[in-house]
Design goal:
alpha/beta, three-stranded mixed sheet, 20 helices, 8 strands, binds adenosine-5'-diphosphate, binds magnesium ion, lipid binding, nucleotide-binding, Chromosomal replication initiator protein DnaA, AAA+_ATPase
Length: 450
């Protein structure tokens, strides 16, 4: 594959054949590890120039040729240099493991977050908390509508804290996870396994930083709010940082117990609003850069068209760009306004009076479980996909009038019997499985927020 990569570098990134022959042609592969390609530079003095000019192009070309993203490191025969790089990578892997333990998405950092007038207060508060956890605003409460960057900001804080001090114990969870784990611990406790509750409390009460996303879904069940209340107190008195997000400010969450509400108001409450036009453009440009989309040469007017038409949800803004690129690739067409209009036609939908359709259900379930819609429609039968797929069937049955046969067709051609089986399976399971029933209630709220 190396020759293919060099060829790509030559055609796409070298200003001339001379430049190619001078810098790129002499390079060889030194070693390929799990996530890094080490490239050997024979002429030691040239390493700086190569590193500066070609590291990004190599990253792109390697990813395109191998279909996998690798880090690129240049090495010379100077062993100290190689060692340093290896140590650097070992350290990076270690931090990555910490990020994973804390449940973090590596893409959500302050670096990739665009600050605008809609979010600068929440951003500044987040940075302050990330710099001095437990010392400034505790709890930090971030609220705002769907797809406006709450989760992104929370992950950014957690990344920053771990990067400054890998010894800190940081945990990000959704309130759904908290609730479901509590339900399971209580259930096991009844089956005479007292350890279950101890393990649960140890998990949540020993953190230096606890982040709970979408707290509005800690609802209904008193026992969950009770347990969360004690978790909160336990952490707060010992000066541990708590960060909470919600779609509304505490005073507007009707189902929240008063004692939790007042506690949420102890620290700082920061809101995120919809982005204005400039911020939407900045986010599109940022995404273009992060996803290496410059090679598509998306015209300004196309970006402006997207920013003008997708206003109130950043996830949809990003989705529009993804859809446009996919369409351009698929149909091998130039990116222009008509193609963009076609790509956006399903996305630009008046949010008011949105009707519940099987497509909407599929989108929400797909996002909730982080399973692509294509997999829901596909044939794979592993449990990570079967459960979400059956939940789609169940929700189509209970939330829409769509005949089961049609549901099967929409789900990529499942027959009536398997749809019916899926519906029955979920219907029965939620009678006894409280965690699943909690999850389904949350998904229903996401589909139909009113
Ligand atoms: P929320 O949790 O508020 O529903 P998310 O944090 O999941 O929203 O954000 C939705 C998407 O939009 C994510 O992919 C996120 O990276 C992106 N996003 C949101 N705000 C910004 C921003 N200010 N800059 C860059 N990307 C953003
Ligand atoms: Mg979120």
């Amino acid at each position: 594959k190396w020759n293919e990569i060099l060829q790509k570098m030559k055609v796409e990134y070298c200003s001339s054949t001379t430049a190619y022959n001078a810098w790129i042609a002499p390079l060889t592969v030194y070693e390929v590890t799990d996530d890094t390609v080490f490239i050997f530079v024979a002429l030691k003095p040239s390493i700086e120039h190569i590193e500066e000019k070609y590291i990004l192009p190599f990253r792109v070309c390697v990813a395109e040729v191998t279909g996998k993203e690798y880090d690129i490191a240049f090495v010379t025969e100077d062993n100290a240099y190689i060692k340093e790089k290896k140590e650097f990578i070992a350290k990076k892997n270690q931090t990555n493991a910490l990020f994973e333990q804390a449940n973090l998405n590596p893409k959500y950092t302050f670096d990739t977050f665009v600050v605008g007038s809609n979010n600068n207060f929440a951003h500044a508060a987040s940075v302050a908390v990330a710099e001095s956890p437990g010392e400034v605003y505790n709890p930090l409460f971030i609220y705002g509508g769907v797809g406006l960057g709450k989760t992104h900001l929370m992950h950014s804080i957690a990344h920053h804290i771990l990067q400054n001090d890998p010894g800190k114990k940081v945990l990000y969870v959704t309130s759904e996870t908290f609730t479901n784990e509590l339900i399971d611990a209580l259930k096991q406790g009844k089956k005479s396994n007292e350890m279950a509750m101890t393990t649960f409390r140890e998990k949540y009460r020993t953190n230096d930083v606890l982040l709970i996303d979408d707290i509005q879904f800690i609802i209904g069940k008193e026992s969950t709010q009770e347990e969360f209340f004690h978790t909160f107190n336990h952490l707060h008195v010992s000066g541990k940082q708590i960060i909470i997000s919600s779609d509304k400010p505490p005073k507007d969450i009707e189902t929240l117990e008063a004692r939790l509400r007042t506690r949420f108001e102890w620290g700082l409450i920061a809101d995120i609003q919809s982005p204005n036009y400039e911020t939407r453009m900045a986010i599109l440009r940022k995404k273009e850069e992060l996803d290496n989309l410059q090679r598509y040469h998306i015209p300004d007017e196309v970006m402006q068209y997207i920013a003008n038409n997708v206003k109130s949800n950043i996830r949809e803004l990003e989705g529009s760009l993804n859809k446009l690129i996919a369409l351009a690739n698929l149909e091998n067409k130039e990116i222009d306004i008509p193609l963009t209009a076609e790509a956006l036609k399903d996305i630009i939908s008046p949010d008011e009076n949105r009707v519940v359709t099987p497509e909407l259900i599929m989108d929400v379930v797909s996002e909730h479980f982080n399973v692509p819609v294509t997999e829901l429609k596909g044939k794979k039968r592993n449990s990570e996909i079967v459960l979400p797929r059956q939940i789609v069937m169940y929700l189509c049955r209970t939330m829409t009038d769509t005949p089961l046969k049609t549901v099967g067709i929409i789900l990529g051609g499942k027959d009536h019997a398997s749809v019916s089986h899926g519906v029955n399976k979920i219907t029965n399971q939620i009678k006894t499985d409280e965690a699943l029933s909690n999850t389904i209630n949350i998904i229903k709220k996401k589909i139909n927020p009113i």
